[in-house]
Amino acid sequence: MKKFVIKILVLIISILPRFIRIFFYDLLKPFSQPIFQILRFAVTKHLFQKCGDNIVIGSNVTFKNWNGIKLGSYVSIHEFCYLDGYGGILIGDKVSIAHNCTIMSSSHTYSQPHLSIRDNPVAKEKVEIGNDIWIGCNVRILGNSIIHDRAVVGACSLVNKTISANSIYYGIPARFYKNINLTNN
Predict the structure, then answer these.
(1) Which CATH architecture has domain 18-177?
(2) What is the rounded CA–CA span in Å between residue 9 and residue 137?
């Protein structure tokens, strides 16, 4: 019954103009109760370039450049996260992003000396996050970063490169800590 109601909500909301859906998202943003998580999913389902099922978006999550973000299924994005899809963000299935994380898919350039740094072009820098990932709280993921499948990024880390599959990384910048044991002992 719950899935049916969510599908009906998504269908009804999807016919609204994009700016109205973004407005509704902003109205729903500060509330943490489960009903608001369901409503946020219904509102955002068609705002992203791609959006799977069973998405949980916590309160006060900010999205910029929605159409550059692709979400798989079973993704949770917890409170106070910031995602900017200007250069493209791809998030796979079964990904958990803890509170206060930032994912930036662009960066400011400073290649044109006749312009102030603020007025220099912004470079698009894609971010790819694989399947079965856990991103700890306060992690910053910068453009041109790739996190391969089944990885953990420890709290307060800065990701600015490629994270190997089946591994744990942490630190500033994020460094390899150890492999995730793939056998059952």
Answers:
(1) 3 Solenoid (2.160)
(2) 31
Q: Are residues 157 and 167 in contact, defined by beta-carbon separation less than 8 angstroms?
A: no
Contact status, residue 126 vs residue 88, Cβ threshold 8 Å: yes
Percent of the chain past pLDDT 70, that is, above it, reads 98
Distance CA 68, CA 86 (A): 6
pLDDT in tens, 57-98: 999 999 999 999 999 999 999 999 999 999 999 999 999 999
Q: What is the pTM of this model?
A: 0.92
Q: How far apart are CA 129 and CA 149, in angstroms?
A: 8
Pairwise CA distance, residues 151 & 130, whole Å: 8
Order of strands, sheet of 75-77, starting from the edge strand that comes earlier in the sequence? 56-57, 75-77, 95-97, 133-135, 151-153, 167-170, 175-179
Does position 5 have pLDDT exceeding 90, yes or no? no
SS3 sequence, 125-183? CCEEECCCEEECCCCEECCCCEECCCEEECCCCEECCEECCCEEEECCCCEEEEECCCC
